[in-house]
């Protein structure tokens, strides 16, 4: 006898929270990060009832779960209060500013991207915790608004060209120095090949016998 298809109760309890541009900074990766931040505060079995949809968090639960729905709604609202100040993590920075991982590392190292501290998390499936730099969202917003990555790339290109010019000049000076060291030996070799004046008369006197 064929089993009856499994039915699920319609998700009739729905509440949404719009994520402001100040919170997401225009990044879907940042929106996903906010979702994960909120989910982390929820009981594990209920986490999948919250998702991000078109720039908003949506909580969906089945009819009859009113008590749990109200408790979770209050929890989500409380967690989202002040979410605009949530530190920006590396993958979000790269998406917001449209930069590469190498650029993030370089600009963090030379101080153009300013760290707001570090965060340590234990990732599922990894034995060791991971520590990484986080960033103030207002600093990242300022970098984005002023289009600083474009300016920094130009500065880096000019610096790289200058470094290549200096390296080429240093190599040329090194080659010139080696050439000058070899010149006296070459001149002595040329002198030995020249005929000696008066040699025939000297030989006739018998002084070499």
Notes on the structure:
It is elongated and about 120 Å long. The chain is built from eight helices and five strands, in the order βααββαααββααα. The protein starts with 12 loop residues before the first strand and ends in a 5-residue tail after the last helix. By secondary structure, it is mainly alpha-helical. The model has no long low-confidence stretch (mean pLDDT 87). α2 (28-39) runs antiparallel to α4 (90-97). It has a domain at 11-85. The chain is 52% helix and 11% strand. The strands form two sheets. A three-stranded antiparallel beta sheet has the order 1-3-2. A two-stranded antiparallel sheet has the order 4-5.
Short overview:
The protein has 209 residues and is mainly alpha-helical. It is built from 8 helices and 5 strands; from the N terminus they run βααββαααββααα. The mean pLDDT is 87.
């Amino acid at each position: 006898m064929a089993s009856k298809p499994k039915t699920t109760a319609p998700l009739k309890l729905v509440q949404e929270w719009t994520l402001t541009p100040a919170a997401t900074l225009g990044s879907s990766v940042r929106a996903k990060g906010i979702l994960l931040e909120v989910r982390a505060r929820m009981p594990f079995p209920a986490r999948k009832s919250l998702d991000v949809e078109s720039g908003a968090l949506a909580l969906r639960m089945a009819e009859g779960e009113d008590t749990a729905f109200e408790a979770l709604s209050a929890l989500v609202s409380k967690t989202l209060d002040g979410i605009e100040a949530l530190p920006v993590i590396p993958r979000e920075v790269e998406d917001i500013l449209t930069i590469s991982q190498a650029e993030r590392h370089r600009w963090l190292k030379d101080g153009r991207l300013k760290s707001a501290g570090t965060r340590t998390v234990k990732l599922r499936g990894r034995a060791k915790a991971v520590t990484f730099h986080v960033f103030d969202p207002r600093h990242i917003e300022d970098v984005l608004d002023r289009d600083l990555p474009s300016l920094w790339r130009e500065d880096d290109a000019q610096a790289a060209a200058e470094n290549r010019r200096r390296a080429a000049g240093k190599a040329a000076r090194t080659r010139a120095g080696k050439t000058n060291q070899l010149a006296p030996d070459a001149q002595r070799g040329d002198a030995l090949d020249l005929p000696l004046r008066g040699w025939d008369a000297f030989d006739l006197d018998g002084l070499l016998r």
